[in-house]
Amino acid sequence: MSRTLEMVFKNNQNKIVRINIVNAKENLTGAEVKAVMEKIIAEGIFIPGDQQLIEIDGAVVVSVNKEELELA
Questions:
Q1: Which residue among 26, 36, 51, 60 has the highest number of C-beta atoms inside a 10 angstrom radius?
Q2: How many domains does the chain have?
Q3: Which of 28-32, 43-47, 59-63 has the lowest mean pLDDT?
Q4: Is residue 61 scored above 90 in pLDDT?
Q5: Would 71 be classed as within a structural domain?
Q6: Do the domain assignments include residue 55?
């Protein structure tokens, strides 16, 4: 199973920006993710052009199960 953490922000143009982290660890907590998201905003780590991230909009973990099919 693969897990992806999707952090969702709003930028200074009121648009949604998503940052995905592939292979997210199993025991993530909301508090840990929120702390990282707050740090990303405070330090301006990801600023595409002049579109600064200004607000947390949410976060989800997406889990995907893959099943190989036998092609007879």
A1: 36
A2: 1
A3: 43-47
A4: yes
A5: no
A6: yes
